[in-house]
Amino acid sequence: MSAQIPEVRSTEQLREKWMKPEVITGSEILLRSLLLEGVECVFGYPGGAVLYIYDAMYGFEDFKHVLTRHEQGAIHAADGYARASGKVGVCIATSGPGATNLVTGIATAYMDSVPLVVITGNVATSLIGTDAFQEADITGITMPITKHSYLVRDVKDLPRIIHEAFHIASTGRKGPVLIDIPKDVSAALTLFEPSSNAVNLRGYNPRMVPNKLQLDKLVQAIQDAERPMILAGGGVIYSGGHEALYEFVKRTEIPITTTLLGLGAFPSGHELWTGMPGMHGTYTSNMAIQESDLLINIGARFDDRVTGNLNGFAPHAKIVHIDIDPAEIGKNVPTDIPIVGDVKTVLEMLNPEVSRADQADAWRAQIQKWKSEQPYRYQDSDTVLKPQWVIEMLNETTKGEAIVTTDVGQHQMWAAQYYKFNQPRSWITSGGLGTMGFGLPSAIGAQMAHPERLVISVNGDGGMQMCSQELAICAINNIPVKIVIINNQVLGMVRQWQELIYDNRYSHIDLEGSPDFVKLAEAYGVKGLRATNKEEARQAWAEALETPGPVVVEFVVSKGENVYPMVTQGSTIDQMLLGDA
Amino acid sequence: MSTRHTIAVLVNDQPGVLQRVSGLFGRRGFNIESITVGQSEETGLSRMVIVTVGDEQTLEQIEKQLYKLIDVIKVINLSSNPMVARELALIKVNAEPSERPEIMGVVETFRAAVVDIGSHNLMVQVVGDTTKIDAMIELLKPYGIRELSRTGVTAMIRGNV
Ligand SMILES: Cc1ncc(C[n+]2csc(CCOP(=O)(O)OP(=O)(O)O)c2C)c(N)n1
Predict the structure, then answer these.
(1) Which of A335, A336, A339, A427 is the most exposed place for a label (fewest CB within 10 A)?
(2) Which parts of chain A register pLDDT below 50?
(3) How many CB atoms lie within 10 A of CB B128?
(4) Is the torsion defined by CA of A447, A453, A454, A455 positive or negative?
(5) pLDDT value of position A1
(6) What is the predicted pLDDT for the residue at A9?
(7) What does A489-520 look like in DSSP terms, one character per residue?
(8) Where is the Thiamine pyrophosphate enzyme central domain positioned along the sequence (chain A) (predicted)?
């Protein structure tokens, strides 16, 4: 299957083949350096400023290059690959319009701390600053949305810069790093001497090991707490700390809520798990946060979608915040016990010290009571398809074991609510930026990372049309993604806000003019299926699962469905609209 | 409570580093009252001195956010220590010959210097802390200030620290 990335080679073999001292071009240095970093695949799109690089890739087979149909597709795919694999995602674009087409994807990765190395071409160094053809100051444009960036002025710096870029992207709080390479630099010749060049960055020393005194304070606080609660986020997954987290909960028996990006960090079937918190979180999670006397934030950033109105957030709780990024601590919520360090390291140090606090029994009972009284619920129907039902069906038929990527909107929230994740890196969604167009390309990247796993991409009919051109990539590379479209004929999430907050004034949300998605799929050579009721839905989905390649399944669902619970802007999170189901 | 803070930032002498630092202030909604950059005692490193206004929590965020920049080596809160802070201003002030003795009186009191004389004006150079320069400007205003250029503050902690 061509979706497969080249066989994993040992670094030794690669060194043998490519890593001898030699005078070569900047472009060849780039490719060899990428191999040295263990890169298996890159997503990209050529153009004038990167033609030397593409020339060097002619016939090059030691990593796979996927030609997407839009640079936005390339960077979201690299992002999906990184989130699914835990490795650094790589994408390449040309200068000017190619580079600016990456901006949304860079911001998406930055907001969600996803490690990417983004390579752009630029005009020749002699032309920089002259408004030359296809010149854009991409390092300047992306400065606020990258962890770091480089404009390479001398080909001799290239090996060091690439090595540093991978190091910066994948350590500490992860994030996208941009390398802008002028055309003459990619053409210039120099002696390439591969080395295991250790990184020497004076201003960059992420702190992994926490302060022991702070840990002791936390251990004591756990002993003293009557209503402790854990709020776990994406940092758990990024640090590889999910097993340590499980152990921590097992020892302490503290109830746990996981944020949107933290879904999969803790098994959803566990009785101490309360679901997601925040705007569309569970009643239990929100009430528990508000009633808690100790809130232990592990690798989450107190996003406003989680906290609601900050005046009145967790009013009774002593706040503990564990984060690798010191700047997150105290940024939104004043912290009583700050713990700076790598989540996994922190939890592994804590685990031998902690045990169950017995005075919290009444609290655990209260949590179970909330859970049974107020689960997620909706009014099912036998005449129209309900989107929540569709997600439940996906969950049941795949036993919660697929990798699910989503676009942004109501379908994203329903997928977060009704699909049950038990493993980390199985849930891929744009949380911080909320980027429509992310669903399909990120699924392509995730499938590249895990060719053997089932990857489902859940999209709205709106967002699907923002990167639908990438269906071509699924077809030609035979990437077996199952692309679900929850078609409610409107920009659903916007409709929901207009209904609830803007007094039913439905302004510009009608998606009239959408393509026939089945035909659209077929036009790209992808199988297309449509379902309008439960029986068709079960059949279509079964057929999709049995079909070896990519499939688009459109579920035509009821139009006016809303996501509940909902905390509206300005409310504290215990003030939830629960809907009428 | 909002107060004025003076921070020194030691940065790699890289193209774009001023943009990174000032961009961070803009994007995070921190205010910059003045910013100066120049060489430091170590080759390859520049020292920026930034004067900003904000409460303690904002100051803490500024420091932490600055440390996130890869090119930032060290952030020092100068105003939490006894420090020497200096600014330089050049002031071109209207000065008909009849008014000159009076203006010279102001200049001498402030230990400033006249660095240029035109037929109808004088250029005055003054060095000192921000309040001294503010005061000097106030006193020269009645004569008519034609041009004013201030450097912003540069500063250091006193003694052996
Ligand atoms: C690029 C981008 N533009 C606009 C938005 C604002 N937005 C958020 S949800 C939404 C509606 C999405 O509609 P659809 O894709 O049909 O999904 P649904 O909500 O109906 O499930 C919009 C427009 C966004 N998140 N991203």
Answers:
(1) A336
(2) 1-2
(3) 18
(4) negative
(5) 43
(6) 64
(7) SB-HHHHHHHHHTSTT---S-B-TT---HHHH
(8) 215-350
Helix axes A343-350, A212-224, angle to 10 degrees: 60
Are A313 and A286 in contact by the 8 Å Cβ rule? The answer is: no
Q: How many CA atoms lie within 13 A of B115 on its CB side?
A: 13
Q: Return the active site residues of A.
A: 71, 133-134, 183, 493
CA proximity to A300, closest of A406, A446, A432: A432
A25: three-class secondary structure by DSSP: strand
Tell me: do B73 and B91 sit in the same domain: no
Distance CA A40, CA A28 (A): 16
* pLDDT tens per residue across span A373-401: 999 999 999 999 999 999 999 999 999 99
One domain for residues B33 and B89: no
Q: Which residues does chain B have within 8 Å of residue A139's beta carbon, measured at their own beta carbons? A: 16
Amino acid identity of B75?
V
Domain of residue B75, CATH code: 3.30.70.260
Count of structural domains, chain B: 2
Find all residues with CB under 8 Å of B147, minimum gap 6, and list them.
B90, B91, B92
Domain identity same for B51 and B107: no
Total residues found in chain A within this entry: 581
d(C-alpha A174, C-alpha A168), whole Å:
7
Q: Tens digit of pLDDT for each residue in B87-137?
A: 999 999 999 999 999 999 999 999 999 999 999 999 999 999 999 999 999
Among the residues of A143-211, which ranges form H helices? 158-170, 183-187
DSSP at A437: T
pLDDT attached to residue B103: 96
Of the candidates B38, B58, B80, which is a domain's last residue? B80
| CA A492 / ligand 1 centre spacing (Å) | 7
CA-based nearest residue to A324, from A255, A259, A239: A239
Are residue B91 and residue B31 in the same domain, yes or no? no
Of B80, B103, B121, the domain-final residue = B80
Residue A557 DSSP symbol: B
Which residue, A284, A286, A271, A531, is CA-closest to A393?
Answer: A531
Do residues B123 and B61 both lie within one domain?
no
Domain region containing B106: 84-157
Beta A41-44 vs A89-93: how paired, if at all?
parallel
Say which of B16, B19, B72 has its CB closest to residue A203: B72
A408 CA closest ligand 1 atom index? 9
Quick one: B61 and B130 in the same domain?
Answer: no
Residues B98 and B72 grouped into a single domain: no
| CB contacts < 8 A (A, B) | 43
Query: Which pLDDT does position A8 carry in this prediction?
Result: 56
How many other CB atoms are there within 10 angstroms of residue A504's CB atom? 8
Interface test with B, best of A202, A207, A301, A333 (most B CBs within 10 A): A202
H or E stretch covering B142? none
CATH code at B138?
3.30.70.1150
Contacts of A329 in chain B (CB under 8 A): 64
pLDDT of residue A301: 98
List the one residue out of A427, A372, A424 whose CA is nearest residue A394. Answer: A427
